[in-house]
Amino acid sequence: MSQSHLSTQRTNLHKPEIKSVVSPKKKLRNILIVLIILSLYTFSSIQTSSFLTQFNAEFFQNVGRMIGKMWPPRIGFASAVWPKLAETIHMAVIGTTIACIFCLPLSVLAANNINQNKYLYSTTKFLLNVLRTIPELLLAVIFVSLVGIGVFPGILALTFFSLGILAKLLSETIESIDMSQVEAMRASGGNTIQVIRFAVLPQILPQFTSFSLYVFEINIRASVVLGFVGAGGIGLLLNQQIAFFNYKNAMALTLIIYVVVVSIDYISNKIREALL
Amino acid sequence: MIEFKDVSLVYQNGTEALKNINLSISQGEFIVIVGLSGAGKSTLIRSINRLVTPTSGQLLVDDDNILSYNTKQLRKLRTKAGMIFQHHNLVKRSTVMKNVISGRLGYTSTLKSIFNLYPKEDLQLAYESLKRVNIEDKVYTRSDQLSGGQQQRVSIARVLTQQPNIILADEPVASLDPPTSHQVMTYLKEVNREDKITTIVNLHFIDMAMEYADRIIGMRDGEIVFDGPVSEVNEGTFEDIYGRKIREDDLRGGSEANEPVSSFNTEDEFAQTRN
To answer: What sequence ranges are listed for the domain ABC transporter (chain B) (predicted)?
Structure first.
């Protein structure tokens, strides 16, 4: 320790002094960036009058009271949860499946190496972009107002929501495939659909499966919330329990959702790892 | 019968790949096109199945100008003109059988092919094609598990399954080692003789061109600078075509490997150890 200290001192005698690991110019820039972020943060805090000081004693008292009301979760409520949970999973399964089927033609149309028609390509791409900017909750609200309260609008919302994600991911995968295989299929007399079936599809199949499972995970989580706007599933139940101040029921419900979502995520992750 | 009449091709970036090509090829010929890379060999071959489209002139295949073909006619043309690529272009994640049967795509209706419903005769034909290149034992192997030479043999089988009148081979041996190269060329020559399929091969190896071709066409800068039977060709001819002295890397070598096909076991063994 002392030896290394000595040797640094010795070199300092002979060489120009280096004060820091970054140049002064960079240091100034970094300080500026931090200052800008801090002032933006402060400005927003003042505008909304939301400050970190709100995490005070009262806040923690509230948290304590809340936990007191929620604990212990009423496990007996689970029997009422299962049917709604099953409904949520069914909604995700249906939504994902339909989206998977329809995303195939859409993603081919949105891939510029397969779809040579510029107008069709940009139209599809534009529509998909529009679709993706709509949050699933808004989609659910729209469909509930169109077809009424129930499971069906929820399924529609999930379908359109996952269609946007899937088609985007898949079209990018298609754009990166090996085109020489496509050329060979074309050269042996295949028409466009045959070329897609025999040269494009085999190349994207692992990614397609992986993306589908990923979207299924997202859909499970999304379908939990959909019930809040009346689009079916377990969210409806959760909303009711909170509205009637049955916090012990709500806690049981939340725990069950947590376990189910985490296990589905885990299984689907393992399958995806095995695929890629 | 293939006839080029004043065929030119200018790519969109302005490159003149073909300049006033006049050429006539009769049924059953084995032609090797030689030239440096960028001489227009690939473009010439790809014009014949319209993977590229010449910008002027007439290209007649069996007295029909293929430059005016619509999509449907093109499909028919490509069914009858099989193509072999340098990197064999197999669908790597599909089995050997699936690759070979895709040679029937042009004959099969879209709906049937999508669900893999091929007639029994087609499946039999695909298997016979694999047998001809001695790779029938790999029929259900995924094609990315084969060695380079084996993949190229599968791509020959794919072309055979098309039952073509013409085989176009674009640098089929450029990424193979010398013994495997000779093996692939031997198969092509065999098919050419037995089935009377017009075969046009792009090569840049002089010794291989001399060994397998009936007729050699030399290209430089998009023009045909030599066209004649192999008997008229000597080293001077190649120096004219290439516009420079012949170098070591213009030769593939290894022609002692040109033995009966059954003796090529080393490469299969190599692939087996890899699997």
So the answer is: 2-246
